[in-house]
Amino acid sequence: MSIGTRTKQGGMVFGDWKIYQHVGSGSGGRTAVFQIKRSNFDWEETSALKVVNIIEEEGQLSQLSKTYKNTYEEECKRLCREAQMEVRLMYQMQGSMNVVNYLDYKFSDWEEENFFGCDLLIRMEFLGCLKHLVKQKDQYSEGEVIHIGKDICKALVSCHKNNIIHRDIKPGNIFRNSQGCYKLGDFGIARILDFTGNASTIKGTYAYAAPEQFRGNGREKYDNRVDIYSLGLTLYELLNGNRLPFAQSSYVRQEDIELRIGGKQIPAPSNVGNELAKVILKACAFEREERFQSAQEFLSALEKIENQTNYRQIIREKEIEPDPYDTVPATAGNKVEQNPYDTVPATVGNKEQNTSVKQGNAEAQCNLGNCYYNGTGVEQDFKEAVKWYQKSAEQGNAEAQNCLGDCYYHGKGVEQDYKEAVKWYRKSAEQKNAKAQCNLGDCYCYGEGIEQDLKEAVKWWIKSAEQKNAEAQYKLGNCYYYGKGVEQNFGKAVKWYQKSAEQGYMKAQNRVGFWRKIVK
After folding, report:
1. Are 385 and 391 in contact (CB under 8 A)?
2. More confident residue, 218 or 287
3. To which CATH superfamily is domain 341-450 assigned?
4. Are 431 and 400 in contact (CB under 8 A)?
5. What is the distance between the alpha carbons of residues 33 and 49, in angstroms, rounded to a whole number?
6. Is the pTM of this model over 0.85?
7. Is pLDDT of 346 > 50?
């Protein structure tokens, strides 16, 4: 079945997945994205299906001469081998929180009416596209843009580490999941760098492409700094009323692009602070030597601005609660919603504490890690925090093991690694640390670092909830309310919401208030 037929008729793919709706098309109609669903016991599972037309010919395959048919089949095989590059790149990037997860793929031969050909079908996680989200609001706040920039920088750190240039960073290739995490997708034009470390030819969307991608009719060598430029331009657009440089509206004209790639100085984006404007303009510098030289450098600049202002709290206050699993493990030392088992780290200036650290006291080492993580008594330094958490965790300190898991989960002070996060959460959880048990439940729920297993998630949330962890009690209430991982039971849902609410957990209090209104 061709892309056009799938768009009109829907149908079944990958066995038991049914095409639910057509989401969008691209590349002159040669690619399409669909939302697909399948029934899974008593709940419905959703994924995205990307269809890429590999080859299409006019006529009927059965009427081709033997020579032409053999030529077609050989060419089809060659193109399919090249098409697998996108899938291999995605598999290579698996485990990175900020890259869209590719779940399955297959090639599909089709023949209908007077055409025949072959498509590549790729199943991936279903996410909201930034391109569509942009149209729903006139202006993004600085905090929101920093959040997006950080997430995509982390994706680029992983890409460039694996010698991959994306070449097409733009809102249409940036996606957001229900937890507010932004991810980079569509590696269809990405290519592994050759041994010289460079690439050539014009690739990507012209409106976001770096100037060097146009030089020499696209034959000039360029490197991963084109991704830094395109990301900078994307963030610029979000901070500039959804307008690219020199554009008078959200629609960019050819002359606008020509001014930019011709070297005309890009003006600062509107409605943005001076420091963030400097960072964005540096990323979009005409000469690549004047840009950030790596995605990590760009990420550090954004983190520095974020740490100067409490953007994280501002973003959380604006978030609408996703349903039903709406939170991820809290970062080490995060006190936005106080957990009764959180401890306040001792200050570095405490002589008794310093002596204890030198003697290898695990609890003191953990507290010192908290000081560096939160910037309490010392300048904030995530790498130094990880160092002390590691020392304490290796001595079996459960709190440090959980904090170290948080660092790996969020990529603070270390490269983001879900599997390593799960390892440390488990060590801590097995020592009955309530926060770690809750975090391990989250990992099972989302399938992060471990195979998704809702029943296993419930198991760990129960252990944590029984230790009076308010967040786990709330999540357990969600499980019973929606029948996820357990049999649906409204009575038990209310029970756990009530227990969480009594500890002051605001989301649980809102749920309890909702139930009381229904009862009245």
Report:
1. no
2. 287
3. Tetratricopeptide repeat domain (1.25.40.10)
4. no
5. 6
6. no
7. no
